[in-house]
Queue: 2 jobs
Job 1
Amino acid sequence: MSAQSTTAHPVSIPVSRTFPTGFFWGVATSAYQIEGAWNADGKGPSIWDTYAHTPGKIRDGSNGNVANDHYHRYKEDVSLMHSIGAKAYRFSISWPRIFPAGTGQPNSRGLDFYSRLTDELLANGVEPFATLYHWDLPQTLQDKGGWQSRDTTKAFGDYAGYVAEKLSDRVRHFFTINEFHSFVDMGYRGEEVNVGGGTVTIELAPGLKLASAQLNQVRHHSVLAHGLAVQAIRAKGKTGTQCGPAENINIYVPLIESPEHIKAAEAATREANASYLTVMLEGKYTDAYLKETGRDAPKFTGDDLKIIGSPVDFVGINVYRPMAYTLASDQPPGWHEVPFAKSHPKMFSSWHTLGPEALYWAPTFVQSLWNAKAIYITENGCAADDVLDADGNVYDTDRIMFLRNNLTQLWRATADGVPVNGYFEWSLMDNFEWTAGYGNRFGIVYVDFKTQKRTPKMSAAWFRETVQPNAVV
Ligand code: PNW
């Protein structure tokens, strides 16, 4: 076929898979992972400063002291967001920048940073979405028991109310807490994750190994803190300020999509999230959870449950992978988990089993189980072993494959009428990936950590070409 005939009959790409009008296409980051400036302008230490400074905790011996130096380079980073077409940005606020000791006197220089960042975002047409807790607890509070102490829940509510009061004239959406399940289960016990052919253990700060009863109490405190924050934001924020959680939902995916297996996967999902999303959205623990935990169940009052179940404006969910595939079973509890095949494909991170259908079933079940009015995909993305090519590009074919397949499944959910209002790609740029250090690159922008030079990867070009027609093709 000649070049001429190709021109005469160009391949046409039908733009049919469009997302709802006004869909927020965003990118996400978190404070400790990008800001650096760990002790600048009056900031107090957080548990992540302490943990990363402890030898042996981070795989490459690194820490977040400098990270992406975003604290000083935020203008460049916002203009990067603008250039790759992002319409929204989900960032987190570092609690110990605002309250260096967790409670008491606020530090105005800390708040000023987020105020300047917000102004810069709005000037660039990027909508700010702020997360109030992305794991960097003030060390002073950890020294008093951290999330094992009920006092921390009150301190969090007070901090949330203060930030809402100061920023809600410009920030209209707040996420209370990021990934309850991760920071509690991985931080206070360490978690074994099933992957094809084995398990990997993941730990996060503060790196404790609590027994079940104590762990369940920390879980309870995390959702109580969320509820207190929701109430504080309502009390102190401008009218119309919206808030909700950002949880990494444990999603069970039906291996075969027929009604009985779908129903089984939905029931499994509700139970698998009993201590977090289910109690926040139903205002009570499931019978099965209380029975299963028995003597180790959390201690709580009826008032606690009312606070925990405070109505939210939206449900944010982080979706990276299916927790498991399921099939219906005639044995209780009505489903059984199908282990991932040994050769089941994975992405670069040790825990990252590939299963794009999770991005269809997660919002679908959030609506069917809890009748959510609005849903945000607060994180989705993957790490890759990215290299800067001699021609200056990063050809991250694996990430583009991952995003295209995931977003096709998300589109399918919106086409079915599931109210998904936005999607935040994790992450805007390579950053400090917790215990994996700087080796696991999650960005759609490449970062040379020696020079701080940012280079958009091919996936950033792909992202822009998705945002522009508001469709995944
Ligand atoms: C999330 N898993 O963590 C966090 O919110 C981010 O800070 C982090 O950088 C990002 O995802 C990538 O890891 C996760 O085991 C940790 O499925 C573990 C899992 C998922 C997300």
Job 2
Amino acid sequence: MSYRIGVIRGDGTGPEVVREGLKVLEAVREGFDVDLVDFDLGADRYLRTGETLPDHELEQLRLCDAILLGAVGDPRVRPGVLERDLLLRARFELDQYVNLRPIVRYPGVQTLVPSHAEDDVDLVVVRENSEGLYSGAGGFHRKGTPQEVAVQESINTRHGVERIVRYAFDLAGSPARRGKVTLVHKTNVLTFAGDLYQRVMDEVAAEHPHVTTDYVHVDAACIYFLDDPSRFDVIVTDNMFGDIITDLGAMIQGGMGVAAGGNINPEGVSMFEPIGGTAPDHVGKGTINPLAAIGAVQMMLRQLDEDRAAARVDRGIRAAASKMTSMRAGEMGMSTSEVGDLVVEGAS
Ligand code: IPM
Ligand code: MN
């Protein structure tokens, strides 16, 4: 058995954290091989050739069993180029319609919310990842004039909403979860998109009598993340709300350095990434936290049904986290590679 893993190290601290992720992958794999295929994509490539994600490479990515991504974005490149034309293009073209973002606080980790008990924070955000405000629909009218109009449209299809809601219910009903789905939206103001989401929720709920449901407005969800996170098991939400609340979610895990995510196409190729970005201030210093990238490897192993190896990574992450002084870059009490080594040690 051999998996073809596409590796996009990307920009900023991406390569540093991917290195640790691959170190852990090599340490935990048993009974299968990995064939790593490096993709030269990101700011350097763009500045050199003007290319972000050429069709040929997109086709090569499609042939992988999974993709591991470090981070994209660079101060030398106009904002939006790499984000839209590389990261979002990959998510959309590969139809990775689920952005799965577990929010877990590992034992011993301090966060900014001292009132949280040790195991209060254990939820998963199922972020719609293929449409909404991120679809790129809209445009300018009279650009650059005092009468300028900028329209950015939120696209919500029956098909798109239904598949993400169904994914959330299936996940909530699985043995790993606690059987509850909360829709997070803004149905009191976004009365078209919100209404579609709520109707689909109600229909799918009727087919899943063993899953309990709840609804929370997105602004109130931010309060609950701080005040009562244990009310959440599986959250389903649209693309932009999911983007925003998962940054807050990272903070109740201890920091962006520990937050991992998967861009999942259940029928195709999925792409796993630390969600924290490129951290330009930490490049080359060995101060970035690799646990998010290692968590991305863990999610990748689960998606490949390599549960034993994934469980080993989980043990390793927990062991390392309990020995670090902080999850935040530069405050870990050890270097990037030392964290990776601790995960390897704890994973055995
Ligand atoms: C994330 C990021 C991306 C997003 C950006 C870089 C396009 O913020 O993965 O959360 O908005 O999805
Ligand atoms: Mn984000």
